[in-house]
Each structure stands twice: as structure tokens, then as C-alpha cells.
Specification:
branched-chain amino acid transmembrane transporter activity; globular; about 35% helix; binds magnesium ion; Rossmann fold; 4-stranded antiparallel β-sheet; about 230 residues; AAA+_ATPase; 10 strands; binds adenosine-5'-triphosphate; ATP binding
Amino acid sequence: MLEVRNLNAFYGESHILHGIDLDLAAGESIALLGRNGAGKSTCLKSLLNADPRTEGSIRFAETPLGAQPAFARSRMGMALVPEDRRIFPMLTVAQNIEMGAFAARDGRKPYTLDEVVDLLPMVGPLLSRLGFQLSGGQQQMVAIARGLIARPRLLMLDEPAEGLAPVIVDELADTINAIRKAEGRSLIVTEQNIDFARETTDRLYLLDVGSVVFSGSWGDFDRNGDLVDRYLVL
Ligand SMILES: Nc1ncnc2c1ncn2[C@@H]1O[C@H](COP(=O)(O)OP(=O)(O)OP(=O)(O)O)[C@@H](O)[C@H]1O
Ligand SMILES: [Mg+2]
């Protein structure tokens, strides 16, 4: 459902991603791992055409992507939950989540708020709170709900576990595993937290300085014992 070939990304004169190849089947979940500055966020933003300038080929849902801007890619079924979550502080949780419905894809209805609460039960009790009243973990759940309401085929989560307490991280992993089972949705999760990534994905790509330095199953990753020391420990 996603096929990326020779993706290069640039911020101004800076060449950030170097020839990334990536494949993702419908219903599959992959992790993008890498240390600070490896290019994880740039990669997700490039798929959505959100910020960096890109070269290379991306096929999504059988369609070659060209110059489609981010909103058009959202309508085709991509959703990105950004690292900084971007919850509107003066809107209620319900309003924050409903903002995401504008990205519903062509010809397919968004979820209703009730359906989103069925998929993410922990946002149910929060619906009338204001954005600024949420804890970090609650903000993350709301940001995921906002991405999910458009019924995306591909949900991209940028470091969802960052800054959250361990007990919340466990809850978040369960949540993500529940929503990936719904409707054969595909997932890309970027992380520096290996345990969280392992729990929520089928296999992984490891990035370093904008290039893929390893891709394979978690079993293959574990058998290459030096990968963590070389590419993940700071
Ligand atoms: N808006 C921007 N303008 C210029 N350079 C940028 C911009 N955003 C990111 N970069 C650079 O691109 C490189 C990759 O950054 P990116 O944010 O993709 O890394 P990351 O793997 O997501 O890191 P982190 O784990 O810190 O989120 C870094 O060298 C960063 O300084
Ligand atoms: Mg990042």
C-alpha cells in the first residue's frame, strides 16, 4: 500500500534524507528507529509532503504521488500525528478531535466521535475538557484520536511515547495495537524507545544520518547485537 523508492529530502540547502527505500503492506505496522536528528520526522513529513522539499518516488494506495500537497494526501488516507501533538489549548477535546474529520478521504466517511471513543476509550471521559487541561499522556491520546477520526489507511505516529511515564506508555502501546487491528490500517511509528516500538510494530527500519542502515524483523535486529550501540545509544 506504500512503496517508497530513492526518497531524498532537503531543507533549503541541507540534504537530509539520502535515498530511502521503504515498503509497507496493508495492515502492517513498521517502526522507524534512529537517534536524535537521524531523519525520522523528516521522513514522515516527506511522505505527507508537509515541509521538506523531496525527490524520489512514492506510491500510495496504488497511486503514484506527484506534487499533491499535504491536504490532498490526507484526503487519500494518510494521517500524521506530529511529535509536538499540537492540541488547541482553548478548544475542548471533542472539538480538537473533530478538527481531524476535515481530512476525511474522498468518498469515505470519517468516524463519528462515538466510534472514535469506541476505538480509544480513554478519551471518552475527557471530551468536554479544554486542551490546556490535559496531561502529556492525555494530549497524546487526543492527538491520535484526531488523526484517527478521518479513518486513515496509513496512520503515522511521530515518537508517541516521548516524555510519557512508563505506565502511560504501556497503556499507549495497548491502544495502538487495538487501533491497528481495525480495518487493516497500516502504521508507521517512529521511536527512540526500542521496547515500545517492538510492542507496536511487525518489523523495523533503522535510520542514521538520513539513510536506512538496517531493515528487517525484530529477530534479525536482535541477532545484529551491535546495532543498538552503533545507531541508537547516544
Ligand atoms: N525545519 C528544518 N529546517 C532545517 N533543518 C531541519 C529542519 N527540521 C529538521 N532539520 C534537520 O534535519 C535533520 C533530521 O531531523 P529530524 O527532525 O527529521 O530528525 P529526527 O530523527 O526526527 O530527530 P528527533 O528524534 O530529535 O525527533 C536534523 O539534522 C535536523 O537538524
Ligand atoms: Mg523527530
